[in-house]
Design a protein that fits this description.
Blueprint (H helix, E strand, L loop, with lengths): L3 E4 H11 L4 E5 L5 H7 L7 E4 L3 H15 L3 E5 L3 H4 L2 H9 L4 E7 L15 H5 L5 E5 L5 H13 L5 E7 H5 L1 E4 L3 H6 L12 H13 L4 E5 L1 H6 L2 H11 L3 E3 L14 E4 L6 H9 L2 E5 L5 H4 L10 E6 L13 E4 L2 H9 L8 H23 L6 H10 L5 E5 L3 H9 L8 E2 L10 H11 L4 E7 H4 L6 H7 L4 E6 L4 H10 L14 H7 L3 E5 L2 H13 L4 E6 L23
Parallel strand pairs: 2-3, 2-4, 4-5, 5-7, 6-7, 9-10, 9-12, 10-11, 12-13, 13-14, 15-16, 15-17, 17-18, 18-20, 19-20
Antiparallel strand pairs: 1-8
Helix pairs in contact: 1-2, 1-7, 3-5, 3-19, 10-15, 12-15, 13-16, 17-18, 17-24
Length: 566
């Protein structure tokens, strides 16, 4: 291995190149200045996106990672710069998003003295990272960074934080990058294949082959493993319907004959009803979130549950499974597929058709064909328009649920949303990151007026970079999801959910972003076409009804049987 003499800051740049990093999202400051000074010499090889707030850097790195399959990288200075990373790191941990987050720290000899902008990032982030490490000597950088990238991607992906003291940035060291050796120092891998793997695969195949009413529920793990094609093959071979979780959207194509919809609180009627009537459920790469199950005591009462996940900590945590199998989703599906047998299940297919027809007639049809402009119409029109492949990004709230229900997704990496943490403000920076990672795709953001304003400063990043993100604001002048709950469960006591918003046309103009507004159904198609034709960033504001709600809905604390439609 070649050894080169360099500073710690240059060693950090070298590790990025050795790991194949092409884009970094960050914000400079005093303590991380040596790193940024060295980055100045690497701008021909590393694209740095200057965000306007450090939280935006983490969400942008998430959007990049989720839409490319690569590790997202972000950097911030010490103290408040570093602590502004916290929400994004927690979000990435909940949604298994691989990140390497670099934060600066004061000189090693000043640690523990409450030095200016000192914050204990290791202590703060241990509960919300896969791994946190503080480098206090430049010589550690190659080994620790190799380990950081490995840990972020291996097993169940997630965020890693590396805190880099200022002295480590300026010290000289001998650089040699040996990833195999560095990873070997970590010791035993966290993931070890189930010793009864094949025996359990055989049992799962037997149960599915003999089931009258089988259902596969595919989660984010299927996408992360690269197992989407194998999932499709399994479903076709065995004639088994496949539902997806919110983060599992894209695990199977929406036009696949075996796809039955999204499960959960605002999921489709058919897969929720099928969950409650299934005799065997194969749950792959999902964690039985409360937003999927509703009240767990009434969840899937007739089903034998087979739970496959790479993280054994998820087993029996929320829902008791009859069979658990720790495995990479793709590896499991590959082993399962050859053991599956085709079965005709006419009554099971008829239940899906009956529930799907009911939803189309009573929910989706009225929302799509309303004389008044609806969120469903806007999402439907936008995701149908244009000729390029789309990456759909959402914020959190009603905009997110309407986007999930009405988007036309074209691939497994084309859906970026905040699931487990439900982070308002996620959407705009995540869309910036997704566009940075997918320059040839149309990146469309669906956001609400509440979530947009939580990180609205990132419009400055669009102004700076010119990244042609398409922003679709579903503006109802409310914190819409909270208002919906207040209407349904708090006697319409709308406590502090009404918003007084700025003039988004003037705001867009101040950031150099093309703008259009629609208020009526007949205006929608032309405005959407204008947005998709425009080569630069675009802000489309859709004026929505204040009282529009997203249905169907499973109320909190209720079972999937307790679905409501109004």
């Amino acid at each position: 291995m070649e050894t080169r003499r360099m500073s710690g800051a240059e060693a950090l740049m070298s590790t990025f190149l050795d790991e194949g990093v092409d884009t970094i999202f960050g914000y400079p400051g005093g303590t991380i200045m040596p790193v940024y000074d060295k980055l100045y010499d690497y701008t021909d090889r590393l694209n740095h996106v200057l965000v306007r707030h450090e939280q935006g850097a983490v969400h942008a790195a998430e959007g990049y990672a989720r839409s490319t399959g690569k590790v997202g990288v972000c950097m911030a200075t010490a103290g408040p710069g570093a602590t502004n990373f916290i929400t994004g790191i927690a979000d990435a941990m909940m949604d298994s998003t691989p990140l390497v987050c670099i934060t600066a720290q004061v000189n090693a000899d000043k640690l523990g003295t409450n030095f200016f902008q000192e914050a204990d990032m290791i202590g703060i982030t241990i509960p919300i990272t896969k791994w946190s490490y503080q480098i206090s000597d430049a010589g550690e950088i190659p080994t620790v960074m190799a380990q950081a990238f490995h840990i972020a991607q291996s097993g169940r992906p997630g965020p890693v934080l590396v805190s880099l003291t200022r002295n480590a940035q300026v010290e000289m060291m001998n650089y040699c990058y040996n990833k195999e050796e560095a990873v070997g120092l970590l010791g035993k891998e966290a993931f070890v294949e189930d010793p009864r793997f094949l025996e359990k695969v055989e049992e799962a195949a037997h149960d599915l082959n003999n089931a009258q009413r089988p259902l596969v529920i595919a989660g984010h793990g299927v996408i992360l493993s690269g197992g989407c094609e194998k999932l499709k093959e399994c479903a076709a071979k065995a004639n088994i319907p496949v539902a997806v979780t919110l983060l599992g959207m894209g695990a199977i194509a929406q036009n696949d004959p075996n796809f039955v919809g999204m499960v959960g609180m605002h999921g489709n009627v058919a897969p929720n009803a099928m969950t409650q009537n299934a005799d065997v459920i194969l749950a792959v790469g999902m964690r039985f979130s409360d937003r999927v199950t509703g009240e767990v005591n009434g969840y899937a009462p007739k089903a034998k549950i087979i739970h496959v996940d790479i993280d054994m900590a998820e087993f029996d945590k929320n829902v008791k499974a009859h069979l658990t199998l720790q495995s990479d989703a793709k590896v499991f599906l590959e082993a399962l597929c050859s053991r599956l047998e085709y079965r005709e299940r006419g009554e099971w297919a008829n239940l899906y058709k009956e529930k799907r027809s009911f939803e189309l007639e009573n929910v989706m049809g009225p929302q799509l064909n309303s004389a008044k402009l609806t969120m469903a119409q806007v999402v439907d029109a936008v995701t149908k328009a244009g000729k390029k492949q789309k990456v759909v990004v959402t914020d959190v709230g009603q905009n997110q649920m309407f986007a999930a229900r009405y988007s036309k997704l074209e691939g497994s990496m084309n859906w970026v949303t905040s699931g487990g943490l439900g982070t308002m403000g996620f959407g705009l920076p995540a869309a910036i990151g997704a566009k940075a990672g997918n320059p040839e795709a149309d990146v469309v953001l669906f956001t609400g007026d509440g979530g947009l304003q939580m990180n609205i400063q990132e419009l400055g990043t669009i102004l700076h970079t010119g990244l042609p993100v398409k922003i679709v604001l579903l503006n109802n002048s409310y914190l819409g999801m909270v208002r919906q709950w207040q209407e349904l469960f708090f006697e319409r006591r709308y406590s502090f959910t009404h918003l007084v918003n700025p003039d988004f046309k003037l705001l867009s103009a101040s950031y150099g972003i093309r703008y259009a507004r629609v208020e009526r159904v007949e205006e929608l198609e032309e405005a959407v076409e204008q947005m998709m034709r425009h080569n630069g960033p675009f802000f489309l504001e859709a004026a929505m009804e204040e009282q529009e709600n997203v249905f169907p809905m499973i109320p909190a604390g209720k079972t999937l049987n307790d679905i409501i439609f109004k």
